[in-house]
Write a structure and sequence with these properties.
heterodimer, A: alpha+beta, 6-stranded mixed barrel, elongated, B: alpha/beta, Rossmann fold, 4-stranded antiparallel beta sheet, 8 helices
């Protein structure tokens, strides 16, 4: 008995019954395509997050007002972080740090230019902010130490806000009103890409911290503090020192909940990787489940086809096919279904990934893993779910099968 | 060479055991053309299954070309069928979506070794049944008679010791049936051993020898004095366009 030829018989049967074959394949095709897309998009998202985390700066330590673990967005309106904290931090860890920047921010503040009104984010910052972000002005100049000292009513606009207020006209040299307080526009920030999550950082006005706290927000607390270390290796130790310092200053004894959170790029990266990894794994598991269901559907169709093909099986047995030959033929059918289905699914998935990338600007990362996974999974599903129909076919007695 | 010695077959059912064959004995020598006859319910089909090694007798001994089939397991019986027996069924049993050639090649797939000249063999086998020009046709494009001739070509391809035909003309009109019988007679003249199982006396009269079964036993075993000649009968049929 020639096994390849017996297997070829199974595959010929598939080619001869195209519709049935398509139904058997459908589950595998969809499952694998979903797997490829999910993993490509998941990896793309992870890569994007890491890129953004690294743009946050590996030398930076961020101290947010408000507690919480991992990457929490700064919470405006929490009145625990004070400019004095920033001074204490600077005193404690200089000379290892080269910049300590305090920021108070508020969202959806009414901003006007002439008769045009919109809402924007207002960031009240230290003069070192531009360097610490880093986020320089591309036109005019940023907030200076002198602006801080004189509590100047000056603003640097993000491109989004500028466009909303003045269209394509340059805002520099003009006046705007923030909360009905007049500000002189002295600069325009460089444009930042909108994140995949839809966060637009360009819809902001940046003003001196002193002016912001006293004149606009009328508050004494900060939203966050940014510390830039000279040496990246000092970051973890400094972060720990800052935690301890703030515990002392805020009279917090763990396990009491912190009213601040200290974040470093390394921790954020870890958290982000964890979140996107978990999400991708979850979705991939879902696709795997689909694949499993596809396998069961295939098994059922194959089981029905064994009954429908009783005569054929009997004939083959009469002509000299051993039980093993029948078994191999049917197993070859199921494996061919899942493997070809996987190949088609992978191709379709790849196509969808390309389309998402090209037409919807979704960040994707195509790696070899989903394809290896798809191949292995398909082979496994074909093997596992093919055994039962193949055994049933092999068990048929030739006499019962041929009898009319 | 077929040697049957006291073959018995009893089906153990829920009720009392039913004896279908009760000690059937005969010998068929190489080159014989034998018809096994009997009305339905006489054990004819069971005997056919035993002769074809599709079923094992519950008693007696069956030797095919010297091999005691009782000693063989399922796999060995499959190999024996493949090597020694060419089946022709009443229902033709062709693969619907395969060409005549692919159907004829089917037994080779299960042979110990796939011959290199398989395609040539298939062509010769189809020539032998007069269907060389239909090699690429699927069964649905062939008439019943042609389908049965493809089945005969399939039976011939491994050059078996016997051709075992079960009511081969049962599903055919008179002309096609005679054509099939003419092919059997031609194969017989070339030295093939042929066993036809039939209920039709007219069909049986084409053989050299008739074995009649009654109630699971051989009631009659006689030579046919003057075999019918299928070719001559065909020639005597009123003219009509051949299919």
């Amino acid at each position: 008995m020639s096994l390849p030829r017996v297997a070829a018989e199974g595959i010929r049967a598939l080619a001869a019954h195209k519709l049935r074959t398509f139904f058997m394949m459908a589950g595998t095709i969809v499952g694998i395509a979903a797997l490829v897309v999910i993993m490509a998009v998941g990896k793309g998202a992870e890569q994007e997050v890491l890129k953004r985390v690294n743009s946050f700066g590996t030398h930076l330590i961020k101290i947010n007002a408000g507690g919480g673990k991992g990457y929490t967005k700064p919470q405006a309106g929490i009145a625990t972080l004070k400019p004095e904290d920033a001074e204490a931090i600077r005193a404690a860890i200089s000379p290892r740090c080269d910049l300590v920047v305090s920021v108070a921010q508020k969202h959806n503040i009414p901003i006007k230019a002439g008769d045009r009104q919109t809402q924007g984010d207002v960031f009240a910052v230290d003069s070192d902010w531009h360097e610490a972000m880093p986020w320089p002005a591309k036109e005019g100049e940023g907030v200076t130490a002198e602006d801080m000292a004189t509590m100047a009513h000056v603003a640097v606009l993000g491109t989004g806000l500028s466009k909303a207020l003045l269209g394509d006209e340059s805002p520099v040299g003009g006046d705007i009103q923030i909360n009905n307080i007049r500000f002189h526009v002295k600069g325009l920030l460089e444009h930042h890409d909108v994140s995949p999550g839809g966060d637009d950082e360009n819809n902001r006005a940046v003003i001196p911290l002193t002016t912001g706290l006293r004149r606009v927000f009328n508050q004494t607390y900060l939203t966050y503090i940014r510390v830039r270390m000279k040496d990246v290796r000092d970051v973890p130790a400094a972060a720990e020192e800052i935690r301890q310092l703030l515990h002392e200053r805020h009279h917090i004894t763990p396990p009491e909940q912190d009213d601040f959170s200290v974040v470093t790029a390394g921790e954020v990266a870890e958290a982000a990787r964890g979140i996107s990894g978990t999400l991708t794994a979850l979705l991939a598991a879902l696709a795997g489940l689909g694949l499993l269901v596809g396998g069961i559907v295939m098994m059922n169709i194959l089981l029905v086809s064994v009954t429908a093909r009783t005569k054929e099986i009997g004939l083959r047995r009469a002509l000299g096919a051993t039980r093993r030959a029948i078994f191999v033929q049917f197993l070859a059918e199921s494996i061919a279904v899942t493997v070809v289905g996987a190949a088609l699914g992978a191709a379709i998935g790849w196509g969808v990934v390309e389309a998402l990338h090209r037409f919807a600007s979704v960040r994707v990362l195509v790696s070899w893993e989903p394809f290896a996974l798809a191949g292995t999974f398909a082979l496994g599903v074909g093997l596992v779910f093919g055994v039962q129909p193949a055994r049933r076919a092999a068990r048929l007695s030739p006499i019962d099968a041929i009898r009319k | 060479m077929i040697e049957l010695e006291g073959i018995a077959k009893t089906y153990a059912g829920t009720g009392p055991a039913a004896a279908v064959l009760k000690g059937v004995s005969f010998v068929i020598r190489p080159g014989e053309y034998v018809a096994v006859m009997g009305a339905s319910g006489t054990g004819k089909s069971t005997l056919m299954n035993v002769l074809g090694c599709l079923d094992k007798p519950t008693g007696g001994r069956y030797r095919l070309d010297g091999a005691d089939t009782g000693a063989l397991d399922d796999d060995a019986l499959a190999h024996l069928r493949n090597r020694k027996i060419g089946f022709v069924f009443q229902q033709f049993h062709l693969l619907e979506r395969a060409s005549a050639t692919q159907n004829v090649l089917l037994p080779l797939i299960y042979a110990a070794e796939y011959p290199e000249d398989a395609k040539d063999r298939a062509r010769r086998a189809l020539e032998a049944v007069g269907l060389a020009d239909r090699a690429d046709y699927t069964p649905s494009k062939l008439s019943g008679g042609q389908q049965q001739r493809v089945a005969i070509a399939r039976a011939l391809i491994l050059d078996p010791a016997i051709i075992l035909a079960d009511e081969p003309t049962g599903n055919l009109d008179r002309r096609s049936g005679l054509e099939v019988l003419a092919i059997f007679q031609r194969l017989h003249r070339q030295g093939r051993t042929i066993v036809i199982v039939t209920h039709d006396a007219a069909v049986a009269e084409h053989a050299q020898r008739v074995i009649v079964l009654k109630e699971g036993a051989v009631a009659e075993d006689r030579a046919v004095a003057q075999s019918r000649d299928a070719e001559a009968e065909l020639a005597a049929l009123p003219k009509e366009a051949s299919p």
